[in-house]
Amino acid sequence: MARRLSTARTSTQRRFALAPTPSPWWRNAVVYQVYLRSFADSDGDGIGDLAGLRSKLPYLAWLGVDAIWINPHYPSGGADGGYDVVDYRAVDPEYGDVSDLEALVEDARQVGLRVLLDVVPNHTSDQHPWFRTALADPDSPEAARYHFAPPSEEPPNNWQSLFGGPAWSRTPDGRWFLHLFAPEQPDLNWRDPAVAADFERTLRFWLDRGVAGFRVDVAYGLYKDAALRDNPGFYAPTLFGHGPEQAMTWNQPEVHDVWRRWREICDEYPDTMLVGEVCLADLDEVALYSRPDEMHQALSFRLLKSAWDTGSFAEAISSALDAYGRVGAPVSWVLGNHDKERQVSRFGGGPLGAARARAAALLMLALPGSAYLYAGDELGLPQATVPDEAKKDPIFLRSGGARTGRDGCRIPMPWNSSPGVGFSPDGAAEPWLPVPAEWRSYAVAHQAEHDGSMLNLHRRALALRKAHPAFSTGEATVSTQGDVLTVRSVGTEETVRCVVNMGAETVLVRCRGTVLLASTAHVRHSARSVALPPNTAVWLVEH
Ligand code: GLC
Ligand code: MG
After folding, report:
1. What are the residues facing 3 on neighbouring strands?
2. pLDDT at 231
3. Do 33 and 337 form a contact (C-beta atoms < 8 A)?
4. Which helix H or strand E contains 387, and what residues bound it?
5. What is the pLDDT of residues 90-141, one digit of tens each?
6. Could you count the other beta carbons within 10 Å of the beta carbon of residue 490?
7. Using CA positions, which residue lies closest to atom 3 of ligand 1?
8. Is 225 assigned a catalytic role?
9. Is 118 touching ligand 1 by the criterion CB < 6 Å?
10. What are 478-529's pLDDT values in tens digits?
């Protein structure tokens, strides 16, 4: 027997209003995150590249996203998946060259897609010419652009690397240098004006080539406590990001001036934007990065970390709507990315995980603001098991294998059902990370032909999100009742709902409306109610 539920009585209620129109494109855009190295390989070296991505633009246009964000494409030391940049105004030859990037931007424009790049201002590679000079000559101007400390027995303070171990390593001549990530990623000293000036050149270099803006890596970093005081606590990965235990290394007030300056630069280029990676525990602090004169958006990672229950999802949604609403910014929702376990696996794996991932996708795409969709999530890819000897992630390597690392969510995309899954041309080198044999069944070509596939679910949802702007621009109310979560959005023309059943029993939801889309074919509905099986979601338009 289905339990009866009425959505009229609610246990949690929050309200949120988007800023008045006119609405720039990024406020409610769906941005597709391309892990470049794993997207499509055009030249057969087993590594995804810009020409490969260019060849897949028709796919992305067909899918219906508005923009793409490309993980770092720069020449890199290769220590952290490209987040150790050697030259910020160039393209790694593995991926192509600057003309390939220009061609990508132009082709993307022709099919209605904007291109965002990833900029990495907190640290460079240890192979960057500045750091090499700094190592060779402690008195060089380049040395002042990093954090060096004189030789001593103990490191200058207790700061820890996010990838494990102390955040200080020694140079060959015995000095200490700071790296809040891997030792191959020395932190820049943003108190040196040469650092700021160089990044402004970098922004203009790419904006002049037509990119639509940047995802800003570690945007909560850059400045560190000027006196290098000890952190009150050691790094203990918290669920939602860094907190007061790391008050000396992150979220220094000075960093906001950088975003104000970068905003001014973007304002010179119409329709461009900045979206920051801000991993802080306090959502109000996160939202400050997207104040009207700072970055346009700050990624909200709450959904990505919510457990499968109505309480945590409702809290994730309403707290973000409230915090971002207070500064007038749209929430930038994230369900998956290149740093976290794939949702299908996180939600329990197998058919259960897949059902929940489908429902979660409908939930995210029904929320007001913008959404970031990680490549492969539209296929429902699970987290892959990567043999230790094939792993590349410094988190795995630096922890001596104690931490699994992020390789399992960075596997090459399956495009077709051939043995090589169509990632590289026939007869090419092995892909840079091994692709599980069973991934053929997740291939784009295969799913495109199956009406009920995860891929077609995404495609339909993206089209309906456009056709019914109430989803992305309406005034949303989040409510829960038992195992049912409802987001009701009042738009200018109509009122829409996304209803998710997170429980283990079918529930009957009363609502006068038309079903637009369901995450499963097994939803039964009449003019007055919808019977929603466990772990499913439905989109409705109210009558
Ligand atoms: C960000 C990136 C992550 C990278 C780190 C250091 O968190 O998303 O992949 O390892 O910054 O640049
Ligand atoms: Mg290649």
Report:
1. 507
2. 94
3. yes
4. none
5. 999 999 999 999 999 999 999 999 999 999 999 999 999 999 999 999 999 9
6. 16
7. 339
8. no
9. no
10. 999 999 999 999 999 999 999 999 999 999 999 899 999 999 999 998 889 9
Residue identified by tokens 């409705």 is 540
Q: Name the amino acid, one letter, at 18.
A: L
Q: Are 5 and 481 in contact (CB under 8 A)?
A: yes
For residues 414 and 439, is the Cβ–Cβ distance under 8 A? yes
Length of the chain: 543
The span from the CA of 189 to the CA of 380, in Å, is: 41
Q: Please state whether beta strands 495-501 and 67-70 pair in parallel, antiparallel, or not at all (unpaired).
A: unpaired
Tokens standing for 215? 């995802």
Contact 243/251 with Cβ under 8 angstroms?
A: no
Q: What is the tens place of the pLDDT at every residue in 38-60?
A: 999 999 999 999 999 999 999 99
What Cα–Cα distance (Å) separates residue 20 from each residue in 183, 305, 361, 497?
46, 30, 27, 22
Beta-bridge partner residues of 476: 489
Q: Is 217 in the pocket of ligand 1 (CB under 6 A)?
A: yes
Rounded to whole angstroms, how far apart are CA atoms 452 and 259? Answer: 43
- Two tokens at 323? 């915090």
The CA distance from 291 to 28, in Å, is: 17
pTM recorded for the entire structure: 0.95
CA distance 374 to 388: 24
Q: Where are the alpha helices (DSSP H) in 366-503?
A: 394-398, 444-448, 454-467, 470-473
Is 439 in a helix, a strand, or coil?
helix
Task: List beta partners, residue 85.
Answer: 76
CB neighbourhood size of 101 (10 A): 24
Q: Which amino acid is at 293?
A: D
CB 241 within 8 A of CB 280: yes
- Give mean pLDDT, residues 237-266: 90
Looking at residue 206, what DSSP letter applies? H
Cα 541 to ligand 1 centre (Å): 39
How remote is the CA of residue 218 from the centroid of ligand 1, in Å? 7
